[in-house]
Amino acid sequence: MKKVLTTALAWLAVIAATPFAHALDEVTFGTDWQAEAEHGGYYQAIATGIYERYGIKVTLRQGGPQVNHTQLLAAGRLDFDEAPASFAGLNFARQKIPMVAVAAFFQKDPSVLIAHSGVGNDSLAALKGKPIMIGADTRVGWWLFLKSKFGYDDGQIRPYNFNPAPFLADKNAVQQGYLTSEPLVIEKQGVKPVVFLLADYGYTSYGSIIETSQKMINEQPDLVQRFVNASTEGWYSYLYGDPAAGNALIKKDNPEQTDDLLGYAHDKMKANGIIDSGDSEKTGIGAMTDARWKDFFDVMAAQGLYPKDMDWQKAYTLRFVNQRVGMALKK
Q: Hey, which CATH number is domain 24-107+205-329, 1.10.10.10, 3.20.20.80, 3.40.190.10, 3.40.50.1100?
């Protein structure tokens, strides 16, 4: 009888010491666009039970052209939000809105310029003064970096309608794009483009940035840490393991995503170090540094986007990253 009691007490101790034996914490997470490979780590963490292992049940809400998840986060309708670039955190800081970036899962922003080969447009410097098709948001986004570093000017800007037809019809055309999508569309039309990944030329914006409220950080820091850690493991699994589970969920949420497109995007992100390069190779996926945030802010403030005396460090916290979480999963 004593042995049985001892064994039972031992099991109770194990259960009590096991993390998240209690009910799962439910959180709502908004991505920056419709489901795609660029969200693969989050879908992988759902599909393979990583979030649940960390005691979290995640409801993922897709973004899209008519969805403003930044506003929904500020209104308290989302617990976490994915921002595509560092502008979002700095915009919150400028407006003194208590929302904070807690991790950056893209070490490189995947934004690119795309040109035709063999016409002299073989470097970013060569594009100075030439017409370039960009969208309205880009004009107050990474275009400011190109103005600062390469001397581009607004007279070069031509409207971009997110259709490759004008580019394909004109060998001198140059357009914006995303490393993981537009080049593939163009290649399928028989054109091998020149692709300039802006991050490789000094553009220091992060991408796939996770934001949450200062209130959440103050009141539930453990939940924030678990969400960041689980998402980190999800990205390691998607990038270096078998992404099939995550891709299946992506296709369920967005049937327009094909295996061809998902595979292309996955391979481009891995080959170009979009997720895992630089600081993340030392301190883990999701890494951020003060130096990167300062460099980005300084460039944008010099272009007049932000006041130079703004408290830019309110945009983010390093509390939940740079802990080498999940690095053992890298293969």
A: 3.40.190.10
